TrEMBL record:
Pfam families: Glyoxalase. InterPro entries: Glyas_Bleomycin-R_OHBP_Dase (IPR029068), Glyas_Fos-R_dOase_dom (IPR004360), VOC_core (IPR037523). Residues 2-125 form the VOC domain. This is Glyoxalase. Coiled coil: none annotated. SUPFAM superfamilies: Glyoxalase/Bleomycin resistance protein/Dihydroxybiphenyl dioxygenase.
Length: 133
């Protein structure tokens, strides 16, 4: 098997709101869209997963999946220049729901939450301070 693209498919109540969030704040572009559906990509610019947004209740989904919504999921994007991204997003009014912080193991991160409750975490890895474990 050769994986050629990674796509995250999310079922949300308001496709347009999530589409706007990902395009405005995270540089995604609409590859295709229809009523209750949007396929988003960042193209070949980087390694970010493509995202498909489906409206809750969409008949293209199996009946047992139609009323499920994205929940308990964190979309983590590893980036460079985390401080600059946090400033850019804060200045743009992005909904930052967990402020920038650094974990003892060397993970620097902050989180945003889109209008449908999708948590997006931007992460940058650094050499942890202190003695090696």
């Amino acid at each position: 098997m050769k994986v050629t693209t990674t796509t995250l498919s999310l079922t949300v109540a308001d496709v347009d709101a999530s589409r706007e969030f990902f395009c405005t704040h995270l540089g995604y572009e609409v590859a295709m869209a229809a009523d209750g559906f949007a396929s988003l990509t960042r193209g070949e610019a980087d390694a970010a997963a493509d995202i498909v947004l489906l409206r809750t209740g969409a008949e293209v989904l199996p009946p047992e999946q139609r009323d499920r919504q994205a929940g308990g999921l964190i979309l983590a994007l590893t980036v460079s220049g985390l401080d600059a991204e946090e400033r850019r997003l804060r200045d743009a009014g992005a909904p930052i729901t967990m402020p920038l912080r650094e974990e003892p193991w060397g993970e620097r991160l902050f989180q945003m939450t889109d209008p449908n409750g999708i948590v997006v975490q931007l992460v940058e890895w650094v050499t942890p301070a202190g003695p090696a474990v």
